[in-house]
Specification:
The protein is an alpha/beta fold. The chain has helices spanning 10-22, 33-42, 59-68, 84-92, 105-123, 153-164, 172-179, 190-202; strands spanning 2-6, 26-30, 47-51, 75-79, 97-100, 127-130, 133-136, 141-144, 147-149, 207-210, 214-217. Helix 2 packs parallel to helix 3 and helix 6 (153-164) crosses helix 8 (190-202). The radius of gyration is 18 Å and the shape is elongated.
Length: 220
């Protein structure tokens, strides 16, 4: 899943991005409200972590603009303020949750996952079944028949994306876009590395390479 962090405290933003990336998310970071609104309008994010006190445009206005445009992306607001009025204003503009600084990183991750589960419950089943493969997107567990297959965070993210498009050809560029962050400029062959790892753990025939087009997860 792809997250956007809009936070002008660069050290905090990069720390959150590093932690959430380790959880298996693709994370983009911007430090300005206007840039955050532009990025959120251009990219279909799964969740936005949005600070209130931002240069360019504050978080209240960013949230209100996204809701006015019909964007229902879950928004977790961050603020250094502490008071009922601030929380009410944030929720009134359409935010889904509210976290006051300083906060525990463990609490933030729990809130993020809860918002994503809530959204997923209304959109798609949390467990994806492809043949004898079960991908539990909420618990982040994978079963092959009766056996659990332990995957690293990025391995699970690649498999989840393929499973959501089972039977379809998914390009390498599409996997990069959904699993790695916007600023990733490393070797695009990293996708092949993770697909190879998944084949070793799940069986060689489950993920087909469609030469020149991408990969396809098939029921077997």
């Amino acid at each position: 899943m792809r997250l956007l962090i809009v936070e002008d405290e660069k050290r905090l933003a990069l720390s959150l991005a590093k932690g959430l990336t380790a959880e298996g998310f693709a994370v983009d970071v911007v430090h300005d409200g206007l840039e955050g609104l532009h990025r959120a309008s251009e990219v279909p994010y799964d969740l936005i972590v949005l600070d209130i006190m931002l240069p360019g445009m504050n978080g209240y206005r960013v949230c209100a603009a996204l809701r006015a445009a019909g964007d229902d992306v879950p928004i977790l607001m961050l603020t250094a303020k502490d008071g009922e009025y601030d929380e009410a204003e944030g929720l009134d503009t359409g935010a889904d949750d509210y976290l006051t600084k300083p906060f525990s990183y463990v609490v933030l991750v729990a809130r993020v996952k809860a918002l994503l589960r809530r959204r997923g419950a209304g959109r798609a089943a949390p467990v994806i079944e492809v043949g004898g493969l079960r991908v539990d997107t909420a618990a982040r567990r994978v079963m092959r028949g009766e056996d659990e297959v332990v995957l690293a965070a990025k391995e699970f993210a690649v498999l989840e994306h393929l499973a959501r498009h089972a039977g379809e050809v998914v390009s390498k560029a599409d996997i990069l876009e959904h699993v790695w962050d916007f600023a990733y400029d490393g070797d695009p062959n990293i996708v092949e590395v993770y697909v190879s790892a998944l084949r070793r753990k799940l069986g060689a025939g489950l993920i087909r390479t469609m030469r020149g087009a991408g990969y396809c997860l098939e029921a077997r």
